[in-house]
Amino acid sequence: MSTIRVFDPPMCCSTGICGPAIDAPLARFAADLGWLKRQGVSVERFNLSQQPAAFVEDAAVRAALESRGEASLPLVKVDGDIKSSGSYPSRDALAAWAGIALPPSSPEEPKATSVSGCASAETGLRVPSSRGCCSPASADAGQKKPGCC
């Protein structure tokens, strides 16, 4: 099976559902990577703000950052080759690069729905939130909610 390595720009989290607004392309991409993992593809993800060493240690990623800066992110490598830089690829592209056939779509497939709230640190389940994932738990608290990105 293929190995996909994603080098993300600095961000709160990779799910796309942090804070008061959902980042739809990022949420879709996170779902697509989850689908790839369920197909047996090895997927690794690195966030520049949380794992800078991974960006420095990879010569191709380091060269992309030196030439184009953060505009080169997100950067997707498949089996060591850069396949995408500067935007999140589609599930179709990811599947093709990984050598996986996409199942035909059916009318019964569930449509994407919006999600709000934080993942509970204890259970991993979504906890409804009117303030968004990375906002303070109370008006006078200056910290992120437990379980946030």
What's a quick, concise take on this entry?
With 149 residues, this protein is an alpha+beta fold.
Rg of Cα set: 17 Å
How many helices in DSSP terms? 4
| Assigned CATH class of the largest domain | Alpha Beta
Instruction: Please count the beta strands (DSSP E, at least 2 residues each).
Output: 6
CATH-derived architecture of the largest domain: 3-Layer(aba) Sandwich
Structural class assignment:
alpha+beta
Helix fraction bin: 25-40%
Biggest pleated-sheet summary: 4 strands, mixed
Tell me the strand order in the biggest sheet.
Answer: 2-1-3-4
For the record, the count of structural domains works out to 2
What does this 3D model show about the protein?
The protein folds into two domains: 96 residues, Glutaredoxin, CATH 3.40.30; 34 residues, no CATH class. Helix content is 26%, strand content 17%. It is built from four helices and six strands, in the order βαβααββαββ. The two termini are 30 Å apart.
For the structure shown, list the relevant keywords:
4-stranded mixed β-sheet, two-stranded antiparallel ribbon, alpha+beta, 4 helices, 149 residues, disordered C terminus, Glutaredoxin
Give me the secondary-structure topology.
Layout: E1 3-8, H1 24-38, E2 42-47, H2 52-57, H3 59-68, E3 75-78, E4 81-85, H4 91-98, E5 118-119, E6 126-127
Parallel strand pairs: 1-2
Antiparallel strand pairs: 1-3, 3-4, 5-6
Helix pairs in contact: 1-4
